[in-house]
Design brief:
This protein is of the alpha/beta class. It contains ten helices and seven strands. Keywords: Methyltransferase, Transferase.
């Protein structure tokens, strides 16, 4: 990573950070799926907001190793996974080949997809919005590539919001001198925080702020769904105690929005 290059932008840093995490990405709970209970939770969420695929075209933005892409494929969608990390796409393609799926993968920027206008019935993304440098522009782009009546399903969370578990984690560190268990090494965690400090949602990211930006982009029928406990409980059971407890109390949500028919 050449941070001395004056043309090296925050977007480049985000791409390189996730590229370096690609090889071990699927080892972390909350990234790959490690139980049938979690898989069923995701399938319930997808069908609740998007219905059965029935061959409809779906664009999975920042698809990473294709966890959500495969869930969408299982629901019957014709899926395109887009990511601008070649390392992530390599993992995604290898997984798809192993599973025998026909998911299409393309290299691209979630904020400027270069996909044809009005070419998708649905758009999905998980833990992408917090990384966006320009969400208003990105949402307008997503609006443009959706067909009239198409839907976007965002899964993310207000990770900057303080919780009592964060207080417990700080107390644990103070008493023991040890940081809480993490899926990232300290150096990667520091880079993660440095990136977070420079993106649009650098502090908190309440669902209401996302809803307002979606509305400004032209979306309507916007629904905020916080009933994700089946997914989070299944994940928490696979995590160290404090991380699992934090997963259960965090303000995580799904937001579904519709492009008007006219």
């Amino acid at each position: 990573m050449n941070t001395m290059n004056t043309n090296y932008s925050i977007r480049d840093e985000i791409r390189d950070f996730w590229s370096e995490r690609a090889a071990t990405f699927d080892e972390s709970v909350g990234h790959e799926i490690f139980s049938e209970a979690e898989r069923k939770g995701w399938q319930r969420l997808i069908r609740k907001h998007l219905g059965e695929g029935q061959g409809r075209a779906a664009l999975d933005l920042a698809c990473g190793t294709a966890v959500i892409s495969h869930l969408m494929h299982e629901a019957g969608f014709k899926v395109t996974g887009l990511d601008w990390s070649d390392a992530m796409l390599a993992q995604a393609r290898a997984k798809a080949k192993k599973r025998g799926t026909d998911i299409r993968f393309v290299s691209g920027d979630a904020e400027n997809t270069m996909e044809a206008k009005e070419s998708y019935d649905v758009i999905t993304n998980r833990h992408l919005v917090w990384t966006l440098v320009d969400p208003p522009s990105a949402f307008r782009e997503w609006f443009s590539v959706l067909k009239p009546g198409g839907k976007v399903l965002i899964v993310d969370g207000n990770m900057g919001k303080e919780t009592f578990v964060k207080g417990l984690q700080k107390l644990w560190t103070k008493l023991t001198g040890k940081a809480p268990a993490s899926h990232m090494k300290p150096e990667m965690m520091a880079r993660h925080q440095a990136i977070r400090s420079r993106v649009y949602f650098s502090d908190t990211m309440p669902a209401e702020a996302i809803v307002e930006l979606l509305r400004q982009a032209g979306f309507d029928n916007i629904v905020v769904d916080r009933k994700l406990s089946d997914i989070h409980w299944a994940q928490a059971r696979k995590m160290p105690f404090l991380r699992g407890l934090e997963r259960m109390v965090q303000d995580r949500f799904a937001i579904c929005a519709t492009k008007p028919l006219a």
